[in-house]
Amino acid sequence: MTPTPPARRALARARRDGWRHAVMWLVLAFALFPILFVVSAALNPLGTLSSSRLVPAAVGPDNLVRLFTDTPFAAWYLNSLLISLSNAAATVFLSALAAYVFSRFRFAGRRVGLYGLLLIQMFPQFLAVVAIYLMFSRVTELWPRIGFDTPWGLMLVYLGGALSINTWLMKGFFDTVPAELDEAARVDGATHAQVFFRIMLPLVTPVLAIVGLLVFISTINEFLLASVFLRDPEAKTVALGLYQLVADQRNTNFGMFAMGTLLLSIPVLSVFWFLQRYIVEGLTSGSVKG
């Protein structure tokens, strides 16, 4: 029986697009394999690397229980959330202030300051680890509350490395906002603070959300500087604690390690879900409504 013309067209389309679907499924399998393996290892009651499989032989909460009873994981988790949320909020606020000044004001040293921020960003932050360590050794003696083994001292270091690039990123976004809005507000008697908080910030919501999300993700996953500053087991973050689990006993503690990574992904996904609506709303809304 000869196929009808619609059937022939569908068959030809399937032959033409079949390789695209095959490539898509291969890419999807490649992307999902590590996630499924980590989930399987986290649910595996044996909790060892050698016994981990893509499809576990048994499922149980043993790794979750061991993670909270055998390690101070709750303290690590709270430390990670405190440092990441505080650093993201402080970075967004301070970078927005600096970007507003560089975008809207003309003053002596403005160009030098902008190029200075760009030049600092060219050097990785870990190159200054030795200098930072010596500096905070002295700070710890004078002001222990912002020294080693404290989240506040580590946040100061994170802020120093994050403000430069984020200030440049926000300044480019601030430059796209018409200056006539500022002038109209000042004619109506608005102060610089009112212009900044009531006019500028609502218009640059997308870049604020993006910077906050990127800073939060980079901070919660940061390992190098945290390993230098946080030496007390109770003061460690999740990244440091999980590394400590598998540094010497990778096979034995792999199940707890996998469970910890899954728990660490929860705040990252939550922050992304919370901020994505601000990104979409900021990109689709305008400053003037007719």
From TrEMBL:
The chain crosses the membrane at residues 21-43, 76-102, 114-136, 156-174, 195-220, 254-275. The keyword Metal-binding does not apply. It is found in: Cell membrane. Keywords: Cell membrane, Membrane, Sugar transport, Transmembrane, Transmembrane helix, Transport. InterPro entries: BP-dep_ABC_trans_perm (IPR050901), MetI-like (IPR000515), MetI-like_sf (IPR035906). Its main location: membrane. The keyword Transmembrane helix applies. Residues 77-275 form the ABC transmembrane type-1 domain. Coiled coil: none annotated. It is a multi-pass membrane protein. It comes from the Bacteria. Belongs to the binding-protein-dependent transport system permease family. MalFG subfamily. This is Sugar ABC transporter permease. It comes from Nocardiopsis sediminis. The lineage of its organism: Bacteria, Bacillati, Actinomycetota, Actinomycetes, Streptosporangiales.
